[in-house]
Structures are given as structure tokens and as C-alpha cells.
Design brief:
heterodimer, A: 7-stranded mixed beta sheet, 11 strands, globular
Amino acid sequence: NAGVTQTPKFQVLKTGQSMTLQCAQDMNHNSMYWYRQDPGMGLRLIYYSASEGTTDKGEVPNGYNVSRLNKREFSLRLESAAPSQTSVYFCASSPGTGIEQYFGPGTRLTVT
Amino acid sequence: EDQVTQSPEALRLQEGESSSLNCSYTVSGLRGLFWYRQDPGKGPEFLFTLYSAGEEKEKERLKATLTKKESFLHITAPKPEDSATYLCAVQGSNYQLIWGAGTKLIIKP
């Protein structure tokens, strides 16, 4: 039981490049989330998917898109990376909304 | 506006020296307050959920309590392996979690 897995673990991009962060969970959870974590700040929600087939914007969605590929997988895409998107990105899942979330190990992204 | 403030930002203790971390919040319609532990370079790890004022939860050397305005994470006789950043989050009426910036706890042997 791997829990929540994320790929890649590290990535360096140049301004304007695009990339997709992958996330998968094997806990049969309905809800999945993407957060970013910056020094001195709390985790901020980018997008979430309450259930398969639905996605909604969180607190900081600008510059990002998501796809809930199936119940297990939830990807985050940066279409044109900017230095302000340098951050650590975490994917999380939970059985439903209002219940504790389980996090992946994170992706450390640097945009130069 | 929903808000979570954690204090102190950092706390250094000697092994065995008990203390408390604070999480104060303002939220419309509290649905739950969550405590997580985060080790360097890793994702947050769930510890507790508290739903109503007066509720308490315990796990080993940790005890979480909740009032209408704040939560405390009490650490009794801590060990070096308790060193981590402790995160607090609240869930309001829109179901989204609002996170505090965390308290970095360092336990010296």
C-alpha cells in the first residue's frame, strides 16, 4: 500500500516551459487535492477534486490546470511556468470532504 | 475572512521539557480542526481531528485540545524524535482547509 505517490520529486524549468505533475493514490479515496507550500506561509490549495469527474478552483488557481484522470490519478499542469511558481507542490487525498487528508512526498519545482 | 495563526514560529526545548503549541483561528462555521506533523523534505502526516469545543485527543506524548477560538497541542516529556514542524488547519463552511504557517519544534537531547 503505497498511499499517495507523486512524480517527479524534483524539477527545474525555464520561464515559459510547461510540465505536468503526476499524483496517484491507492486508498480508494474519492477526493484529491493539489497544494503549494512556500517558506513562512501555510499550505495553499490550488485545485481540488471532490469526486471523480469533478474539479474546482482553490485559493490560488491562476497559472495552473488540473485533470482528474480516474479515481486514482489527479494531475497538475503548468502551461507557461513563471518564477513565482517556484515552490513545493503536494498532492493529497481523502475519503471525502471534511475528513483528514493524506499527503504525498511532494515535488520541488524551481523555475528560473 | 477565515484565518489561522500559529505560535510560536519556533520552539526549542530540552528533552523532557513539556510545553504547548498554539493555533488560533477565525472561521465561519467550524467543521473541524486538524493537526499535522511535517518532517523536513516530507509531506504532512495526519495527527488529530477535533470537531467541537471541549474535545480532546491524545497520541503518545501529544494531546490536542479545542476551544471556540484556539487549539493547543500539548507535548509531554518530549523526545528528540518529536522534532518536526507542526501544522494546524481549520475547515469552514466551504469544506476547504485553511492552514497555519506552522511551529518548528526542536527537542535537544
